[in-house]
Amino acid sequence: MKKFRADLHIHSVLSPCGSLEMSPANIVREAKNKKLDIIAITDHNSTKNSKALLDLLDNDITFFYGMELQTVSETHILALFDTYDYASEFNSYIYGKLPDIRNKPEYFGDQVVVDKDENILEMEKKLLAQSVNIDIEEAVKKIHRLKGLAIPSHINRDMYGIISQLGFLPENIDFDALEIDERSKFEEVKTQYKNKYPIIKNSDAHYLEDIGTYYTKFYIEAPTVSEIKKARKGIEGRKICYDA
């Protein structure tokens, strides 16, 4: 079994809250400096900077493509795919449910789509930092139909975490893991939820220096979504370990 260090929650310049230094090229460079093996760019409600990531394909690091979805209940869910095509299909589906509210860059921040060489391709006009007209159950089903991972973000956070928004963790929804943030105490979360779900930790980086400050170790045969799903079940020695 091989060990992979993964940071699966990183925002790029497409997120209005992301630093303008967070181009996909810079993110990949910093991730390699931090000796990460798997990364995901997960902008708010959009995967449009995934194309730049695809074009930066690098044998030393594996890319997952995804987004941090904000559901109608203002709950954040990581949607992660190991193929660009599935991520793009999910993006089209979500974009059609995103309310047509214009971004105000002077208030929310710029939403920049770039290529692998940091050329600006588009300034996203729809506000990405808002709730999509989709509930959690529907979102998770769609993610799974596209063979992706559905992971509630920073579940203990006072804003946009599933516990704070709903007051509970729905038992009828099959999440692939639960993410805790830097303010969460792992042992408390593990005691409450680990019997049902693996606990992971990511950086939720909005600045280059934050990439890899928190990560998860996956003991799997290959850096793929299907292998992570097997690790969730502990199949043949595969496992998921929170770290950092």
Q: Notable features of this structure?
A:
8 helices; two-stranded antiparallel ribbon; globular; 11 strands; TIM Barrel; alpha/beta; 24% strand; 7-stranded mixed beta sheet; 244 residues
Short description:
Helix content is 26%, strand content 24%. The protein has helices spanning 24-33, 50-55, 84-95, 105-108, 136-145, 162-166, 186-193, 225-232; strands at residues 2-10, 38-44, 62-70, 76-81, 112-114, 120-123, 149-152, 178-180, 199-201, 215-220, 239-243. The longest helix has 12 residues, at 84-95.
> How many domain modules?
1
Give the helix proportion (percent range).
25-40%
Q: What form results from the Cα inertia axes?
A: globular
The radius of gyration over CA amounts to 17 Å
Largest sheet, in brief, is: 7 strands, mixed
In terms of per-residue confidence, which ranges show pLDDT below 50 for 5 or more consecutive residues? none
CATH class: Alpha Beta
Strand content: 15-25%
Which strand order do you get reading across the main beta sheet? Answer: 7-4-3-2-1-10-11
CATH architectural arrangement: Alpha-Beta Barrel
Average pLDDT works out at 94
CATH topology: TIM Barrel
Task: Describe the overall structure.
The protein is of the alpha/beta class. The protein has one domain (2-243): TIM Barrel. 26% of the residues lie in helices and 24% in strands. The protein has eight helices and eleven strands. The chain has helices at 24-33, 50-55, 84-95, 105-108, 136-145, 162-166, 186-193, 225-232, and strands spanning 2-10, 38-44, 62-70, 76-81, 112-114, 120-123, 149-152, 178-180, 199-201, 215-220, 239-243. The strands form three sheets. The protein has a seven-stranded mixed beta sheet, sandwiched between helices. A hairpin with a 5-residue loop joins strand 3 and strand 4 (76-81). The longest helix has 12 residues, at 84-95. The chain is globular. The model has no long low-confidence stretch (mean pLDDT 94).
